[in-house]
Amino acid sequence: MQSTKILILFYSRFGANAQMAELIAEGVEQAGAEATLRTVPAVSPNHQASEPSQPEHGAIYCQETDLVECDGLILGSPTRFGNMAAPMKYFLDTTGSLWMSGKLAGKPAAVFTSTSSMHGGHESTLLSMMLPLLHHGMILAGLPYTESALGETQTGGSPYGVSHLAGSRSDLPISEHEKHLCHAMGKRMARLATAIKNFDS
């Protein structure tokens, strides 16, 4: 049987979400699944993609085939006024054909974010990213409180998904609790996606 493929799709402006994506990928691979990192381009004020065809470094841009071929999706965006960033929303708004075909229905999904302040809307951002995934028929997975770091963290962390407190200058390092929760999310998604894949086969 082919290995379970987890797509980690994120947008990162100052690097925190990219670091989180890499930590989540480590968790995915620690659980025996295959992690694929993809990003989305920034958008210009007229709401059109404004970046080159592929980034000069880091994760490449997500294509529809990446979504179709994954067994599970982990979606990440920085917080923008308590909501996901425009580039991620723009990308998700282009997935109507996948919604029409139901290609994502039944696949597990999870979300993560970073924000500049402790009460900067990280939980509402996580919830905002869940909405289009629910419309696609995906099965949402949060983080259970059996993860002790979730109850102990003084930085980021949420039962709705992993979060990171980046600070007003977006320069705070990812804390040990946040790192642990990133790994935990990756492992949890790998196990869920593998179980669903085996059940359906």
Walk me through what this model shows.
The protein has 201 residues and is of the alpha/beta class. It has a single domain (5-200), classed as Rossmann fold, CATH 3.40.50.360. Helix content is 39%, strand content 19%. It is built from 7 helices and 8 strands, in the order E-H-E-E-H-E-E-H-H-E-H-E-H-E-H. The chain has helices at 16-30, 64-69, 86-92, 96-101, 122-135, 148-152, 176-200; strands at residues 5-10, 34-39, 60-61, 72-80, 83-84, 108-115, 139-140, 162-165. Strands 1, 2, 3, 4, 5, 6, 7 and 8 form an 8-stranded mixed beta sheet that branches. Helix 1 (16-30) crosses helix 7. The radius of gyration is 16 Å and the shape is globular.
Radius of gyration: 16 Å
The CATH class: Alpha Beta
Q: Given the helix and strand composition, which structural class is it?
A: alpha/beta
- How many domain modules? 1
Write a brief caption for the model.
With 201 residues, the protein is α/β, with parallel strands linked by helices. 39% of the residues lie in helices and 19% in strands.
